[in-house]
Every structure is written in structure tokens, then in C-alpha cells.
Amino acid sequence: MKKLGITSLKLLSISLLLLFIGCEKFKLLKDEDMDLVPAGENTKNATFAAFIKSNDYQQSDRYSQLKLYAQAVRLAGLEEFLDNPNDNFTIVIFNDDAMNSLITGYGYTSLEEVPRPVLRHFILNNIIQHKYQVADFEVGKDEGFESLTGDSLFFRRESSTTNPYVLRVNAVSRYASASVTVRSRDLPFKNAIGHVVPMPTYTVRSSSQKDPKPDDLELSKDSVFVEKDVLLQFASSQAGYQVINPTGDNFQTKMASTINNTGTRRLYMQYKIREPEFEERLGSATLMLYHTRTSNASGVSESLINVYADAYTDWEESTTSYSDLPAMGELESSFSIPSTGNSNKWFASDVSRAVLQAFENNQDFVNIGVWSQSSPNVYFGHLGHANAANNKSYILFESTPETIITNVTVNAVNISSADFFKVIDKTNLQGTGASDKNISYFLSEDTQKGVVLVNGRPLRKRGSFTQEQLRQGVVKYLRNLDVQHTTDEIILEVQDFQGGFYPEIITLPVQIN
């Protein structure tokens, strides 16, 4: 396969597979080996598949650092493809910490709960053709490749005074990506080069923000204020994680420069969920953050802020530790703050999916995480601030107006038994009456014979995607691996940017040939 431009996404027909790791001689995978050093010689004469099959991952704790990944390969039915010694792959490998974060971030409690096609897609989405060691990458350059699912995977080599071979995955500013620094690099196999990472990573195609609601739109409103908020600080190693219950102007978020790029100066907030006081249907839920100031912004015109629906795990504001905080969940939305001239102003970000899903699941709170994809320190109001009464965060509920969507057309999704997924695009589903960025589709019922995927993540009940994402090709239907010659249905509600719902429930047929 080939390097690709950032807008290139090609659909591949895949009947692939993968395998994995572990050997008690493989010392570089131990926790204390945080330096980025190459692997030993003991893997070179084995294929990736042969190496994993030579060890008992299911029974022995000796290989627990990579145990979950090995199990995922088996559950996904990917234990044969990488046994071909003539193949050449570069594989991003996820250790147990990364796999656990991935599982909870997907909304599941165990690896066995994750649908098999989702595991298959995840593994193949982090493999590219050809062997690439860190030294093969140009220092300071984002290099994009087509993964085995036709999506994009990015690498960037960085050099410091102590280490000229730091490799980062998906550290590309033009995508809303969750990037990570490789922990163990250049693992040589007969048919692959492996790079181990300690946290999940993904790319999200940049999407246009929805238009703001008209000022004269008559809506009922209600608010719930933040109940808990803490700041996760990060020092020079994993041992440097510390949770801060901030006081003063110290509720800050900033892009990390080492190891876990999504964990430095990340904000964790919890909001109690209750039915809105108004009787109309809930149309939208919007996170409101009060930006107090931005510092260290030399040469940066704006800060991109990512908002996540974190795992449904309770935590205590005064006593929580790094390990107690909820795992980073699904990216809800993003917004930009100009680096100058926007101090002491409110900024809004859509969290409707998280709130509606919380109602659907009878949850009594939602956890929201905030992280900056830009380097400046960005400060927000919080509960410990002297002016908390006026600047603490809240979620704004708004009612539903009459929709402006005039029509929705559907055409069946046809997926071949030779493939395990099919891209859903505007030829399958298209609404009229508003622009693509202003039309959203909410999953009303879980699919039965497969899974809907959006930007590589499974779409759960009440999850959504936009018509713009259909146009981008990031919405997929993954069939269950054991089904063919059958049908399925994707049942959707359609909503415009003002909050109005299309009056009909939409059924998108799926034909699995």
C-alpha cells in the first residue's frame, strides 16, 4: 500500500488477520522499560502468528502486558493472516492499559462484550503495508498511510537531545486525533515490524461545526451545573500523574509532549442528569465552558478543544487518583478558542449524544472530559474558583422546535459476503432542507446482524452521525462475522441543527449477500 494524502480514504475488501506477542525474554515490554529502545533478536525468525501461537496467553500471567491484545486477535478471527512469511506489515500494537481504556471507551465492561467485527476492524485499522522502523520516518514530518481498512494512520518521528527516535502515532493537527507516543519500537518479526503503545489512538476526520441556532428561535431552556471537577496533571513519566482539585485560576488544559498525549492537563467533570423542567421533548444538550484566559500562545492563532463523553464511572472529587478517574470515552464535539481577545467569555460544545444516551440508559450522571489539541495553556472557570457562582460550567438543555428537514431518502446498504464492512454514504441516506453539517442521524435501536461504526468507533443506541460524515465516508456497517445471506435494519431519527426532529422514523435496510 501507499502513503496517502490526508483526505484520502479508500475502501478495501478485506479478509485479513493478525496476531500477536509475548515472550518472557521480551524484556522491553516491562513497565520499567519506558525508554524507547529496539526489540531483541529473538523475534526475527518467527512470523507474528507463529510467535503468538508459541505462548499461552490465555493461561499464563507472564505475558499480561499484551494479553488482552492477543485475546482480541483470537476473538476477531485474525490468527492466520500474519502467518505468511512473505508479507510485510507495520503494526501498531496496544498493551493491556491501552486495551482496557479502549474497552471502557467503547462503552463495554470486558473484551468479550465488544462485537467481533469491531475488534477485527480496530486491529486491521492499525496495520499498514510495508515494514517501517522509526529511522525510516523523516524527523518532524507527519506521514499518512492507508490502513488495511482503507482509513488513515499517521506517524511522526521526533528528535530530542536525549533520543532521536521518538515515534508518535496519529499526532496530526489536521485531524481531531487522539495521539500517543510509542512505548516500545521496532519489534522485528519475519513478516512485520511492531510498535507498542500504552494508550488508545485514533483519527477523526475534521467536520464543520453546526450553524448556531437563530437568536429569535423560541425554545424552552433548563440547566444543570457541574457537580465535580478536577484537573489531571502529568509530569515526566507515568508515575508523574497527579489529580489536582484546583483553586484559583488553575483549571487548565494543554497538549502533552510526552508518552500519553491525551492525559496531560485534562479536565474531568461530572454533571447530575435529570429530566428538564420543561415538558417539551429535549432537543439538545450543550456544554458551556467559561474561558478565563489563554497563556503561552506565541505563534498560535487558536486552541482546538476536544470534548469527550467519558466512561460511566463514579469518582470522588476530593480523594480520587489517576487510576480512579473514568476512562476517556467517545469524542463528542470540538470547538476553537482564538488565542487572544477571548478572555472571560463563554464557549459552547454539543454533548447531546452523551446526555440522550444517559437518559436512555437510566444513568444519573454523565462524565465529560476536556483536552486541548493545541500547545497553549487554556484556562476555564471551575467550582474552586473565587468566582465560581458566575463562571462554573453547566449543561444547557433546550427544547425541540419544528424541523426544517423536508425529506429523507434511503437506499439499501448492500454488503458482500466477501467483505466484512461497507461504507454508508449519501447514496444510501440523504436528508434535504439543511446543509450536510446541519443534519444528524440518531441510532434509535441497536442493529441485530452487525454494528454501525463512525470514525472507527461503534455507534451505540442514541449515538449519532452527521450527513457530512456520510459524505466523508467515515460511517460504516460491519456485519457479524458468522452471518451472510440475511438482512438487517438501521433505525434512525433525524434532527436538524436547530433541534427539530423529522416526524418519521427512518429505516435503512441492510442486505448481507
Task: Kindly summarize this structure in a few lines.
This protein has 513 residues and is mainly β. Helix content is 10%, strand content 33%.
Commentary on this structure:
- The chain is mainly β and 513 residues long.
- The protein has 7 helices and 30 strands.
- Strand 3 and strand 4 form a beta hairpin.
Counting helices, strands and paired strands, the structural category is mainly beta
How many runs of DSSP E, i.e. beta strands? 30
Nearest-integer average pLDDT: 83
Largest sheet: 11 strands, antiparallel
Please report the number of helical segments.
7
- Determine the strand fraction and express it as a percent band: 25-35%
Rounded to the nearest angstrom, the distance between the terminal CA atoms is 28 Å
Which segments are poorly predicted (pLDDT under 50) over 5 or more consecutive residues? 1-41, 56-64, 257-263
Radius of gyration: 23 Å
Proportion in helices? 10-25%
Overall outline: globular
Which labels suit this protein?
single chain; 513 residues; mainly beta; 11-stranded antiparallel beta sheet; 5-stranded mixed beta sheet; 7 helices; disordered N terminus
